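Exercise 3.2. Students should predict the tertiary structure of the chain below and write it as structure tokens, then compare their answer with the key that follows.

Predict this chain's 3D structure.
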Amino acid sequence: MRPVIHVGSERKKKEIFQLVSTSILPPLSKQMPLEPKPREYCPVCGLKGRFPWPLHYDSSALTDIKDINYMAEYLDYGICLQRYLVISARARDLFLKLNKTKKAKFEPIILIND
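Answer key:
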């Protein structure tokens, strides 16, 4: 965690922190479907298309993951590419318990037994 720089009124100042993860997940499963989009080409990975949700991971590859992780892949986020966060069920439960995620959207992942 790292502190967030406060901007605004000193009277309304709150101590806030940003979660920062250095954990990167293994690549998505080879069984992850790819939605063909011939006009959407990635020169880095050579794929033509996009991944539909939910994400698919091989369960055998997820042996040493943390509670907060970034995907290995970069995905389109409107105006830029970024790695999405993937959190554990334990982290999700904690966020819900603390009621800090009113606007958060949680998506499941599919584990593939290989």
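Discussion points: The longest strand covers residues 35-41. Residues 89-98 form the longest helix (10 residues).
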